[in-house]
Amino acid sequence: MPLVTSKQMLLDAQRGQYAVGAFNIENLEMAQAVIQAAEETGLPVMLATTPSTLRYAPAAVFAAMVGALAAQSKAQVAMHLDHGNSVELVAQALAAGYTSAMIDGSTLSFERNIAITCEAVRLTRGRAPVEGELGRIGGKEDDLAAETDASTDPAQAAEFVERTRVDSLAVGIGTAHGFYLQTPVLDKQRLSEVRAIVKVPLVLHGASGLSDKDVRDCIARGICKVNFATELRAAYTEGVKQALSQEPKLYDPKKLGEAGKRRVKELTIAKMMLCRG
After folding, report:
1. Which residue ranges form the domains of the chain, and what is each CATH number?
2. Per-residue b/e over 232-244, b at no fewer than 16 CB within 10 Å?
């Protein structure tokens, strides 16, 4: 079916008290794997690209590729810009055919974050839902780097949503991008406090490496979208490495891609089922 927006997906998840998985892709094989996982499970899914991925290949390439794959599938698929670092990039993604966008002003002051998020909302209103972020996620992934996280203030979150009219909100509760060097301590009570006064769907970034229990607890406390990126990259790479270790003379990129795709598909199915509780 054609690409759909993420808005109804997340509202349905909020009502049903589950989460939608959002999976960062880097190439054709990862896109195929995620959409095949969605078709086999019958669950809606979001495919996402970050700014660094869009320097590797432009948004038009990813939108066309994912759109073509979705058109051949029965799965509900949304194409999402993850951590959009400028309104200009949001505009490019929408023009290319993306159906969901995040504008990330979390490194800016509160007022500047509101300003840039409002600008993105005005740009996309009526065409695609917008995810904002308040509170900084620690760790490093792609262009994203923060020495420490800055947890989301519940009162500020309510003001942020009211003033920007975002469709969803990514919150900082102690998660980090990339793999964790030590066991994360999540401020789940803070998440519950944000959920009590913020009515839009909430988003959890930095889920790669979290325990299943932590993910389920966060969903029970109001998370409606869970992002996965680093684990998928590692799964793809390990699949290729295994194929080469078993057949060192292998040189066909299609066979290497199939090996990576199998691992990504398996992981995606597991994460999608985890998000359903």
Report:
1. 7-275 (3.20.20.70)
2. bbbbbeebbeebe
Name residues whose C-beta falls within 8 Å of residue 105's C-beta, 6 or more positions apart in sequence: 112, 113, 114, 115, 116, 117, 132, 133
User: 142 catalytic, yes or no?
Assistant: no
Q: What is the pTM of this model?
A: 0.92
| Greatest Cα pair distance in the chain | 59
Alpha-carbon gap, residue 68 to 218, rounded angstroms: 33
AA letter at 195: R
DSSP letters for 79-135: EEEEEE-SHHHHHHHHHHT-SEEEE--TTS-HHHHHHHHHHHHHHHTTT--EEEEES
Which of the following is catalytic: 12, 82, 167, 212?
82
SS3 11: helix
- For 217-259, the pLDDT digits (tens) are 999 999 999 999 999 999 999 999 999 999 999 999 999 999 9
Q: pLDDT-derived band of residue 146, with 50, 70 and 90 as boundaries? A: very low
Tokens matching residue 152: 């989301």
In the DSSP assignment, the letter for residue 74 is: S
